[in-house]
Structures are given as structure tokens and as C-alpha cells.
Design a protein that fits this description.
The protein has 260 residues and is mainly α. Helix 8 crosses helix 9. It has 2 domains: 136 residues, no CATH class; 70 residues, no CATH class.
């Protein structure tokens, strides 16, 4: 495809993804309050486990509504994630051979599942433990009152949940790179120590400036790298013999749809 054709394809896929997100947002408005309670559940569980009395507070008049709106937006992103990731992978597939598009058809639902899995892994697994540690941290000030605002707490939870959802895409990105011949399993095995260090660098950049959040992201991120290596070893790539003309796809999204 020419550069102009790639740009047309990108614009087409972005519009489809945006339309899907808008439709999901109107649906999510009905469940925004329920999802807000789900997002705050790790804080509540940690509060009960720590035996503290630190209810969330709204320090601005519009804060409860903004919390509801943010929760609805994230719920919409979760609901629309299969459609959005399909559009992303369809754009990638427009420049691939037909043999490579078979991987894309499997990758689209896997991306949505990994994104939702990363979000739930943080909300249900790590967040309660993290909040309990932060609540019980003793700064040595007897006049310090722990009473965070609802908006700031929601931002803290949602940012980390989205970071975990995106980080869980690592296995697919690595497997795709191996399928396209950009990297080899042997090279990735030799790079383990650098990837381990890089996982902590990503954790330091993508999470709030506390060691607990960084470790909580870095260790699962490295584990996903090892999972991708295992998939590449158990499911070896096959050489693509498709002719160059098979890559042609117009802005109507024929990259995946025709091969399906």
C-alpha cells in the first residue's frame, strides 16, 4: 500500500473505533454508578481490612458527577474494547500477507481479553493489597489525617487499571514481531536480562512514584514476556509465501474482512 492508502485506512479505522466507543458510552451511562462502586471496592476492602475510618470525601461541588462520568468512560472503553482492538488489528492486517492475517483474526479477540484481564487483575488482585499498604504506612506524624478525595482516588485507580490493561498486550506484540521475522526466539532468550531491567523502567515511568506500584507492574510485565516466549516455542511461525499483490487493501478495511 502507498502512504496515502495507509493514511486512508488509518482514518477509516479510527472513525469506526470512535463510533463504537460512542455507542458503548451511551450504554455505559446506565451502569456508571455500579462500575464506580466496583472501582472503589478495593479501597473499601482495604479500609475494612486495615480497620481504619477514612471515608472518601468530595471536595468540589461537581466531583460526584465527574466521578460518575469518568467511571462511565472507562466502562465504555471496556465494553468497546473488542471492537476497538479489532479495528487496530484490521489496520495492521492491511499491510500483511494472507498467511499473516490468520494471526490477526486470533489476535483481535485475544487483545480484548488481555486488556480486560489486565484491568481486572489490578482491580481485584493488586489494588486491595496496595491500598492496605498505603493506608497503614506510618509517616510518623500524629497530626496527619488520612482522608483522600473521591476524584483523586478514582484517577489513581483508573490510571493504573488502564496501564495494566495495556501492559497485558505485551505477549501479542512479541508474538506478532516473531511471526513477521522481526525477532527470533533465540534473540529474545538472550535478551532476558535487558527485558527484566526494561520492565522495571516501564513500571517506573507508567505508574505513580512509589516502589510498590512499580514492582506490581514490572513483575507481571516480565511474566508476560516469558509467556510470549513460550507461545513462540510451542507455536512456531510458518514462512509466508504469499505474493506481494496480496497486500493491497483499500480504505474499506479489506485487510481482515475479506480474508475472514
Amino acid at each position: 500500500m502507498s502512504l496515502g492508502a495507509h493514511l486512508d485506512e488509518l482514518r477509516y479505522r479510527l472513525w469506526l473505533a470512535l463510533l463504537g466507543f460512542v455507542a458503548a458510552f451511551f450504554i455505559a451511562l446506565a451502569g456508571g454508578k455500579w462500575f464506580a462502586r466496583l472501582v472503589f471496592s478495593p479501597y473499601r476492602a482495604a479500609l475494612k481490612a486495615a480497620g481504619l475510618e477514612a471515608p472518601l470525601q468530595a471536595i468540589q461541588p461537581a466531583e460526584p458527577f465527574l466521578v460518575y462520568l469518568k467511571a462511565s468512560l472507562v466502562l465504555a472503553a471496556l465494553l468497546a474494547s473488542p471492537w476497538i482492538f479489532y479495528q487496530i488489528w484490521a489496520f495492521i492486517a492491511a499491510g500483511l500477507h494472507s498467511s499473516e492475517r490468520r494471526f490477526v483474526r486470533r489476535a483481535a479477540p485475544a487483545s480484548a481479553a488481555l486488556f480486560a484481564g489486565g484491568v481486572l487483575f489490578f482491580l481485584l488482585g493488586l489494588a486491595p493489597w496496595m491500598f492496605r499498604f498505603l493506608m497503614q504506612f506510618d509517616l510518623g506524624l500524629d497530626y496527619l489525617v488520612y482522608q483522600p478525595s473521591a476524584g483523586r482516588t478514582l484517577d489513581f485507580i483508573l490510571v493504573l487499571a488502564l496501564v495494566f490493561g495495556l501492559a497485558f498486550q505485551t505477549p501479542l506484540a512479541i508474538v506478532l514481531a516473531e511471526r513477521m521475522g522481526l525477532v527470533t526466539v533465540a534473540a529474545m532468550q538472550r535478551s532476558r536480562r535487558y527485558v527484566f531491567l526494561g520492565a522495571f523502567v516501564v513500571g517506573a515511568v507508567a505508574t505513580p512514584p512509589d516502589a510498590l506500584s512499580q514492582i506490581a507492574l514490572a513483575l507481571p510485565l516480565y511474566g508476560l514476556y516469558e509467556l510470549a516466549l513460550l507461545i513462540c516455542r510451542l507455536w512456531p511461525a510458518r514462512a509466508s509465501t504469499a505474493p506481494p499483490s496480496d497486500k493491497n487493501a483499500g480504505p474499506t478495511g479489506a485487510g481482515v474482512d475479506q480474508s475472514a
